[in-house]
Amino acid sequence: MTTVTTATTPLLLITADPSHPLAHLALRYAKALLEQAKDTANSTDIADSELNQPPLNVFFYADAAHTANRLRWQSAEQFNLTQAWQTLATQYQLPLPVCVSTALSRGISDTDNSERHQLDGDNVATGFHLVGLSELAMMMQSNCRLIQF
User: Fold this and answer.
1) Of 143, 123, 125, whose CA–CA distance to 57 is shortest?
2) Hey, what long-range contacts does 28-36 have (CB within 8 A, 24 or more apart)?
3) Where is average pLDDT lowest: 40-49, 56-65, 125-134?
4) Distance CA 140, CA 10 (A)
5) Residue 41 has pLDDT above 90, yes or no
6) What subcellular compartments does it reside in (predicted)?
7) Cα–Cα distance between 132 and 100 in angstroms, integer?
8) What's the gap between Cα 66 and its chain centre?
9) Is residue 5 scored above 70 in pLDDT?
10) What is the pTM of this model?
11) Confidence (pLDDT) at 46
12) Confidence (pLDDT) at 77
């Protein structure tokens, strides 16, 4: 397992459709990083400035935007990746940004974009939020370690 340090913040760029094994691997990787960061924070003296840095950034792009669709149905025996990300986000106060243009092109919209583009409703899952690519650019400007799934 890679050690999370304050020198670099992992950025998970998730592009895989939620049905793809890489999408599930991204979630497991995020969980491991967040748990490791929590354990490290609990076991060492960390400066206040370091505590304010997120231990992990994620960004949903391309087909991964489907993860943010609250109307995505799957059978009961399938793992619900959307709910798993929502749980993780709540547990660790982790933002779940989704590229707005790739989301809209895949039929995923929030209230603001539905009104702006005269769509019949919104379907973005709770905890996910649509953002521009500038969010990704800002995450990449900081000292990050980019990992794509």
Assistant:
1) 143
2) 29/147, 29/149, 30/56, 30/58, 30/88, 30/94, 31/88, 32/1, 33/2, 33/4, 34/88, 34/91, 34/92, 34/94, 36/1, 36/3, 36/4
3) 40-49
4) 10
5) no
6) Cytoplasm
7) 6
8) 12
9) no
10) 0.88
11) 52
12) 86
What confidence tier does 75 reach under pLDDT thresholds 50, 70, 90? Answer: confident
Is 89:95 a contact under the CB 8 Å cutoff?
A: yes
Q: Which amino acid is at 78?
A: Q
Active-site residue flag, 144: no
Smallest Cα–Cα separation from 72: which of 125, 13, 127, 15? Answer: 125
Asked if residues 8 and 144 have their Cβ atoms less than 8 Å apart, the reply is yes
Which domains occur in the chain, in start order? 9-148 (3.40.1260.10)
What would the mean pLDDT of 44-56 be, rounded to a whole number?
A: 60
Q: Is the pLDDT of residue 104 over 50?
A: yes
**Set 34, 99, 125, 136: catalytic member:** 99
